[in-house]
């Protein structure tokens, strides 16, 4: 439902572009085909929406709207406003887009842009336009049957009223309140609202907004709503009088407006006559109503006409014809997925078709559940759109609020104090980090000195090995070879056995020395002594920092001394890096190192803390983790990390003993 007064502008000084200057309307929209506009409220108010005091009464309104449509590019205006960060322009262009989509029945988009407009108007404290936006949101929600939420927006609009509220604004609010109360089935309050609205239309000031013809259209719309309310209250005599006067007023309308109001008023006339059992008069009005709807091509109204025909025949006893018309309405309604018409038809069958009451009841229940589901879906959709719209503007409002706070003296003082506090905290943190780094460097120097000494010893031993091997090969082996050769040359009798024995012995010595020489030349193992003690000392060094307590557990089954020098060095460096990360980032109170025996060929190293943890998937890996991974890759292992925010972190890797 879109009420017509939203688009109207004041004759004096109102610079906002009216709806008629902005909207894009096709010929079908202008004719208002009933297959598009299902609700009675839309049918009455959508066409009136195009009126404003900017158009002459005799002008062809369709050509006027179409011309204005070609001159405007709402999306372009909106994009430019966003680019320029112009809150006023964003608010007005968002409202214009909301009206555009509301007019063209894209109600989700309309709701989104209205909410965005409201947020910006609230941010720039423009109460007049914020009030208008709340009113538009109330109308939009009424059109979707969400009356409780519509009432909330209308209350927000009324809250913004000032002492000098105009007659037009009062009329607009009371008119929409009547719509809300009618939807909530509070018929007495709805009647009271429409009577007040009708009274305001007689006020001279209302002519600042509407001409005489537009006032007449508003009065006719109010009569239609009053008739509907009285019919719902079963006060048919009053409804009959109202519809009689309204049908007289219709004769003075333009042809296109007759097509809008006449079917609605005839429908109510038929319902009054049927309820008061004046069947002959009812048949006459039904026949006339059917002719009008066929001429206008109102598919939805035709289905309602068939239901009225069916009720007439049910009441007059022609059950066969009644069922034919109900079936005709149901087939068409199902074709267009018109649940409300299906519900009305099934309600009629439940009352009069007693033979098929069970089947009709289940069909009615199914349709009603689908209607409720559709309404809930609409509510959820609007709630989601409001949330998305609010989120988009929240950041802008936050920046503006922060700017306002910054320029005040009191906030400046607070920011200065906060800055000093942050400086102290970060300075202390930097000191702690520097101390940890200093301890790490001391540890590295200590271990580096050990490695350096071991490397020197290794180099000296290597030189001595090669020298010894060379002497064995070039000296002793050559001499033994000559001796064996000489012995083999002896030919005197009696010496043969001695010669063979000596030759064998010398050959055995030669073989032994050769094997020993090769073993010395190929030896590349060098073990850091007492590697377990080095690890324990590294853990104890970490406890110089009081923030985190480090402890160590080494399985007694493990013999770490069989590891190669290269493996030991890599393990030590990895442990250093892991402990440093715990000190820097974990904010843990405890950290445990475990070397766990797995099998004769494998053991596992595990480091776990109870710190703040992190998201393994999103954390950016630094140089430390990369170095740890590279060192493990060099010894045929792989780093595993498991961390949960608020729980702690566990890193582990396997080491081969062979």
TrEMBL record:
Record's keyword annotation contains ATP-binding: yes
Documented EC number(s): 2.7.13.3
Domain Signal transduction histidine kinase subgroup 3 dimerisation and phosphoacceptor: 464-518
Residues spanning the signal sequence: none
SUPFAM superfamilies for the chain: ATPase domain of HSP90 chaperone/DNA topoisomerase II/histidine kinase, TPR-like
Transmembrane segments: 403-426
Domain Histidine kinase/HSP90-like ATPase residue range list: 570-655
Catalytic reactions on record: ATP + protein L-histidine = ADP + protein N-phospho-L-histidine
GO CC annotations on file: membrane
Keyword entries, A-Z: ATP-binding, Kinase, Membrane, Nucleotide-binding, Phosphoprotein, Transferase, Transmembrane, Transmembrane helix, Two-component regulatory system
GO MF annotation terms: ATP binding; phosphorelay sensor kinase activity; protein dimerization activity
Protein name: histidine kinase
Organism this protein belongs to: Myroides marinus
């Amino acid at each position: 439902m879109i009420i017509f007064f939203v688009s109207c502008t004041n004759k004096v000084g109102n610079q906002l572009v009216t709806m008629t200057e902005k909207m894009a309307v096709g010929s079908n929209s202008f004719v208002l085909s009933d297959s598009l506009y299902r609700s009675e409220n839309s049918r009455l108010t959508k066409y009136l929406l195009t009126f404003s005091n900017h158009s002459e009464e005799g002008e062809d309104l369709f050509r006027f709207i179409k011309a204005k449509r070609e001159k405007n590019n709402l999306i372009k205006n909106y994009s430019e406003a966003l680019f320029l960060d112009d809150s006023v322009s964003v608010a007005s262009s968002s409202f214009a887009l909301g009206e555009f989509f509301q007019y063209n029945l894209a109600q989700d988009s309309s709701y989104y842009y209205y909410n965005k407009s409201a947020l910006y108007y609230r941010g720039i404290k423009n109460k007049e336009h914020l009030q208008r936006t709340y009113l538009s949101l109330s109308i939009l929600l009424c059109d979707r049957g969400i009356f409780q939420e519509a009432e909330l927006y209308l209350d927000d609009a009324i809250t913004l009223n000032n002492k000098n509220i105009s007659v037009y604004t009062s009329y607009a609010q009371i008119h929409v309140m009547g719509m809300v109360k009618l939807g909530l089935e509070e018929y007495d309050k709805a009647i009271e609202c429409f009577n007040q609205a009708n009274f305001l239309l007689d006020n001279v000031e209302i002519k600042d907004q509407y001409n005489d013809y537009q006032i007449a259209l508003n009065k006719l719309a109010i009569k239609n709503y009053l008739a509907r309310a009285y019919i719902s209250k079963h006060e048919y005599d009053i409804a009959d009088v109202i519809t009689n006067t309204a049908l007289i007023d219709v004769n003075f309308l333009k042809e296109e407006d007759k097509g809008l109001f006449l079917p609605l008023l005839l429908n109510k006339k038929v319902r009054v006559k049927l309820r008061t059992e004046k069947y002959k008069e009812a048949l006459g009005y039904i026949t006339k109503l059917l002719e009008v709807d066929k001429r206008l091509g109102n598919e939805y109204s035709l289905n309602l006409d068939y239901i009225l025909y069916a009720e007439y025949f049910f009441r007059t006893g022609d059950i066969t014809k009644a069922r034919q018309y109900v079936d005709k309405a149901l087939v068409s309604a199902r074709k267009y997925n018109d649940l409300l018409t299906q519900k009305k038809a099934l309600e009629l069958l439940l009352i009069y078709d007693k033979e098929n009451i069970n089947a009709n009841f289940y069909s009615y229940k199914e349709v009603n559940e689908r209607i409720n589901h559709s309404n809930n879906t609409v509510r959820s959709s609007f709630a989601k759109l409001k949330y998305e719209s609010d989120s988009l503007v929240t950041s802008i409002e936050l920046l503006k609020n922060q700017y306002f706070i910054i320029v005040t003296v009191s906030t400046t003082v607070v920011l200065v104090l906060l800055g000093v506090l942050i400086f102290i905290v970060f300075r202390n943190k930097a000191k702690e980090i520097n101390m940890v780094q200093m301890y790490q460097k001391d540890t590295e120097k200590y271990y580096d000195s050990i490695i350096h000494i071991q490397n020197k010893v290794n180099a000296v031993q290597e030189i001595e090995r090669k020298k010894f091997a060379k002497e064995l090969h070039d000296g002793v082996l050559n001499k033994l070879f000559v001796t064996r050769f000489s012995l083999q040359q002896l030919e005197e009798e009696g010496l043969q056995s001695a010669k063979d024995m000596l030759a064998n012995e010398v050959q055995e010595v030669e073989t032994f020395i050769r094997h020993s020489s090769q073993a010395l030349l190929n030896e590349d193992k060098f073990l850091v002594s007492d590697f377990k003690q080095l690890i324990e000392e590294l853990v104890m060094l970490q406890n110089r920092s009081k923030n985190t307590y480090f402890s160590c557990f080494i399985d007694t089954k493990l013999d770490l001394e069989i590891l190669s020098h290269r493996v030991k060095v890599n393990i030590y460096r990895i442990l250093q890096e892991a402990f440093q990360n715990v000190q820097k980032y974990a904010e843990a109170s405890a950290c445990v190192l475990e070397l766990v025996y797995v099998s004769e060929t494998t053991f596992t190293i595990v480091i776990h803390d109870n710190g703040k943890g992190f998201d393994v998937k999103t954390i950016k890996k630094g140089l430390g983790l990369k170095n740890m991974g590279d060192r493990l890759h060099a010894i045929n292992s792989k780093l595993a990390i498991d961390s949960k925010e608020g729980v702690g972190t566990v890193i582990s890797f396997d080491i081969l003993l062979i």
